[in-house]
Amino acid sequence: MYEVEVKAVLKDRNAVMKKLQELGCEFSRELHQIDDVFDPDPKLFPLPTGVVMVLRIREEGGRYIFTFKMDKSNSMDCIEHEVEISDKGEMEKIIKLLGFKYQVQVDKKRIKAQYRDIEVVLDNVKDLGEFIEAEKMTNEPDGDTRKKIQEELFAFLETLGIGREDRVIDARYDTMLFKKFNKKTFMIKVIIFDGVNCITYQEPLSVGLARDYKLPLEKTLPFFKGVLQDCVAGKSDLKEVLPPFLEAWGWQSGVEGLLKYWFERDHKIDNELVSYIKELRNKGVICLLGTNNEKYRFTYMLDKMGFNEIFDKSYCSAILGCKKPDQQFFSKIYNELENIKKEEVLFLDDKAENVESAKDFGINAELYTTFEDFIENIKKYNL
């Protein structure tokens, strides 16, 4: 199956939509599509001269679609195959093993309309602006015939008021973005690191209490899932709310004893990552800590675990008054940065919901699993 399309700059969306409505077209709901685009690494996957091949992972409405594209006569005339996938991270690993490398992210909002056998899409692309596309799918194998279809498609766009001077030739959004920023799209200037299970290795305190003090989870979890979360969000003081729970648990060492056990037990640091952060800072990259934590544990991390020295600055949910994945968490940190664009910020966290929230806020974000995967993933940011 061949995807044949034409594209043009959209100067007057309302006028075009009105003309489409007059033709009887109905519009879809607005779709938010985020495309990660991968091109072959010529060192690992050399292609014949003139062959252009692209892999894409599209995120749309909580779903992930993997797409293969290979240009034929031009980038608006290509073979296309796609399939829904369940695990984006695993697909990215497969893509890299196949010899493809990450190039750019295309973030767009799209509405669709159907006119006879032509699909019309109106796109608002971050950092590029508004465009209109007209598309047909065909089994026609002859390239010249498909070029004629492209001319027919643009003739249709002309009936909507689109001028020839606005036509975009041989330019996918990923190519346009790459050219616009001249590879500077991902010149990261600020990295925000999560604390727990990123810089440090920490198991839930409830698990430790169950193992070391035989306190059953069903007895302690109501505190950790309820009252402690208010402390993490800065709404309550841990030392003030703990005593009645400790009494109910039969804990004999008091509040300070519990905090000592908790903080010292979790005093484990990923020294490889800390060394790499030092290298990043030497290169001029601002490295920040952004952690969901209550204030006493945060103070211990700063003073006893050396986070004051590891990071340029550290942020804690209890101090900010909001916790991840609330976008206010990212907003408050970002608002303190001077002369930094959102696309120049990278956020790392071990929880997918926090990563997705950061992306929705408009900054780059990656799921942190291991130091090895982190080193691999960060390559695409040209650090």
Helix content: 25-40%
Identify the CATH class of the largest domain: Mainly Beta
Query: Helices and strands, in N-to-C order?
Result: EHEEEEHEEEHEHEHHHHHHEHHEHHEHEH
Main sheet, how many strands, which sense, barrel? Answer: 8 strands, antiparallel, barrel
Shape: elongated
Total DSSP E strands = 14
The spatial strand order of the largest sheet comes to 1-5-4-3-2-6-7-8
Please tell me the overall pLDDT.
90
Flag low-confidence runs: none
Question: Which structural class is indicated by helix and strand composition?
Answer: alpha+beta
Could you name the CATH homologous superfamily of the largest domain? Hypothetical Protein Pfu-838710-001
> Helical segment tally?
16
Distance between the termini: 39 Å
Per CATH, the architecture of the largest domain is Beta Barrel
Instruction: Report the portion of residues in β strands.
Output: 25-35%
What is the number of independent domains? 3
CATH topology of the largest domain: Hypothetical Protein Pfu-838710-001
Radius of gyration: 26 Å
Model description:
- The protein is of the alpha+beta class and 383 residues long.
- The protein has three domains: 178 residues, Hypothetical Protein Pfu-838710-001, CATH 2.40.320; 126 residues, Rossmann fold; 61 residues, no CATH class.
- It is built from 16 helices and 14 strands.
- The chain has an eight-stranded antiparallel β-barrel. A five-stranded parallel sheet has the order 12-11-10-13-14, sandwiched between helices.
- Strand 7 and strand 8 form a beta hairpin.
- Helix 5 runs antiparallel to helix 6.
- It is elongated and about 85 Å long.
- The relative contact order is 0.11.
- The mean pLDDT is 90.
